[in-house]
Amino acid sequence: MGLYVDIEKKFPEFNLKVKFESKDGVLGLLGASGSGKSMTLKCIAGLETPDRGKIVLNEKIFYDSGKNINIPIKKRKVGFLFQDYALFPNMTVNQNIGFALDNISKSEKGEIVREKINMMNLTGLSERFPSQLSGGQQQRVAIARALAINPEILLLDEPFSALDSHLRSKMEKEIVGILSTYSGSAVFVSHNRDEIYRICKNIAVIDNGVVDAYGEREEIFSNPPTLSCAKLTGCKNISKIKIIDENTVEALNWGCTIKVKDKIQGYPKYIGVRAHYIEYTYDEYGENTFSCILDSISESPFTVMINLYILEKKSPEKLKCIQWEVNKEFWNKIKNIKQPWNIYINPQKVFMVK
Questions:
Q1: What percent of the chain has pLDDT over 70?
Q2: SS3 category, 105
Q3: Is the pLDDT of residue 315 over 80?
Q4: 3-class SS at 51?
Q5: Where does the record place the ABC transporter domain (predicted)?
Q6: The dihedral sign for the CA sequence 162, 168, 171, 175
Q7: Which of 14, 55, 62, 342 has a Cα at 20 to 30 A from 186?
Q8: What is the Cα–Cα distance from 239 to 273, expressed in whole angstroms?
Q9: What 8-state DSSP symbol labels residue 278?
Q10: Which residues on neighbouring strands pair with residue 243, listed in sequence order?
Q11: Which long-range contacts (CB under 8 A, 24 or more apart) does 36-40 make?
Q12: What letter does residue 58 receive in the DSSP assignment?
C-alpha cells in the first residue's frame, strides 16, 4: 500500500525521470524552481501524461505505459492544492467546494460542503466569491475543495508561496493539523527546505528532472549524498578536496586540512559543513582548529552570517570565505575581540560527497 512512481517525460528544457515510493506519512519533494516537482504532481493527478513508466496508488494502477493504462483524472480520487489555489472566480465558496462532487444527491452534496466549511473555519463566507476573500481564506476554500471528494491522496504544490510570512506560518500549522489526521497518502512540494523539514518525514530531492536523493529527512540533511542535494538542503560551506590519508582531506577552497570522523570511502570530491555547526574556540592548536580573519557579515533580524578567511596555507585573496552563522547575542560578544579568531570544525559534523 502507498504511492509508487517511476515515470519519464521529455521536455525541451529537461527530461523528467523520477522514481520514488512512499508508504506512510507525508512525502516531501524538494527542488529548485523548474526542477520537475510540480510536473511530477501533475502526472500523479492525471493532468499530464508521462511518456512511459508507472504510477500506482494503494495497488490501484493510475498509469502504466506497458499495459496501456491511463486512468482519467476524476477516477483517481486525487485532492490537488495548487500554488495559486485555482478557484473558479465566477463561483461562490459553496460552489467551488462542491465542484467535483458528482453522482451524489443534492442533499448529500450540501452536507459535505457544510462539513468542510465548518472544518476550515469558513462559516459565513459560503456565498462569497474568491475576489471577496483574503489569501488565507482562499487557501482554506482550496483545501476544503481538495478534501471534499474524500481523496485517496493529497497533492500540495507550494501551498504557502502566495502568502506573507505571518499568514504562511499560520496556514502551515493548519495544514500540519489536517495532515496529522488524514489517513491517505500525501505529497508536499516546496523549494523551501525549512517547510519540507517541518512537514515531511521522508524527502525526495529533485534536481533537473531527476531524483537526486531519497530517504528520511534527518539522514538527507545530515549526510546529503550529492553536491546538488547538499546545496538544495541549504549547506553554505562546500569545498573541493584533496585526500591526504584515510581520515584527512585538504579543503582546497578554504585553504586548510580537516580531519573527518570516519574512514574515507570511495573517491569523494567535496567536503561540506553547515554554517551553524562551526564553533568559536580559545584553543589555538587543537585538531580542526583554524585561525581566521573577518571578511564581511550579513545580518538578519536574529542571526548574523560571518564570512571568514582561514589563515592556514594561502593568502586570503586565493581562497573562498567559510560562512559561520551565530545568533545576535553571540555576535555582540565577539565582534570587538581582536583578530584573528579561532574556529573549530567538529569532525562529527562534516560530510563528503562525490
A1: 99
A2: coil
A3: no
A4: coil
A5: 2-233
A6: positive
A7: 14
A8: 9
A9: -
A10: 249
A11: 36/206, 36/208, 36/209, 36/210, 37/157, 37/189, 37/190, 37/191, 37/206, 38/83, 38/157, 38/158, 38/189, 39/9, 39/11, 40/5, 40/7, 40/16, 40/189, 40/206
A12: T
The label of the residue with cell 585538531 reads 287
Strand, coil or helix: 241: strand
Class of domain 3-224: alpha beta
Rounded Cα–Cα distance for residues 110 and 21 (Å): 36
pLDDT in tens, 268-295: 999 999 999 999 999 988 999 999 999 9
Strand-pairing partners, residue 308, are 294, 322
Q: 169: burial class by Cβ within 10 Å (0-12, 13-18, 19+)?
A: exposed
Task: Give the pLDDT confidence of 77-93 residue by residue, as tens digits.
Answer: 999 998 888 899 999 99
Q: pTM of the prediction?
A: 0.90
With contact defined as beta carbons under 8 Å apart, do 272 and 347 qualify? no
Hey, what's the cell of 12? 525541451
* Contact (CB, 8 A) for 320 and 253: yes
pLDDT over 90 (residue 347): yes
Q: Round to whole Å and give the CA distance between 62 and 76.
A: 7
Strand partners, 7: 18, 53
For the chain, the domains span: 3-224, 235-353
Determine the Cα–Cα distance for residues 116 and 14; give it in Å rounded to an integer: 39
User: Is the separation of the CB atoms in 292 and 309 below 8 Å?
Assistant: yes
82 grid coordinates? 495548487
Cell representation of residue 235:
549547506
Per the structure block, which three cell numbers stand in for 343? 574556529
